[in-house]
Amino acid sequence: MIARLLIGSCALTLALLPLQARAQMSAFTAEGERVYLYGNGSWSTEPDLSFSDLLEMELQQARPDADKDDRCTLIFGLRNGFAVNLQEVAAEVQFLDPDGQYLLTRRVTFKNPRAGKVRFAEVQMQLADACTGFNSFDVVDVPTCRMDDGTKIEDCFQSFSIVED
Is domain 55-162 annotated with CATH 2.60.120? Predict the structure, then answer.
């Protein structure tokens, strides 16, 4: 009987716990700023951070080169929805033409994506029609995904999401 009550109590407690990281306690820095400790060991100055557990990548801008008609610079944004800061995330991106045919692959590397923040990176490509030469892109691999301390996260690819307008 006691075992059933204990198991039921644990199950109810686990069911009521949110899936997102929540602040467990707070402290003050030497400068008097309040910081919050999260269950994963990270600290933040924002008390109500919510994390999607996704790395959300979005094409922010496609800018043709003023000097070369066949060159295009793409600016990507990556929102780190993990509850930890990352040291580096590299994504292998394949670009497709309007007919869905493969054009080329580029690696886009984001340095120091902080938890809950957006980091930007750019990549250049050379296509006959510059920025209008591709229709879409897809992330096909995430070969590099490391936390602040250098620890490799094994399955970042499963957490990658492309945000489209």
Answer: no
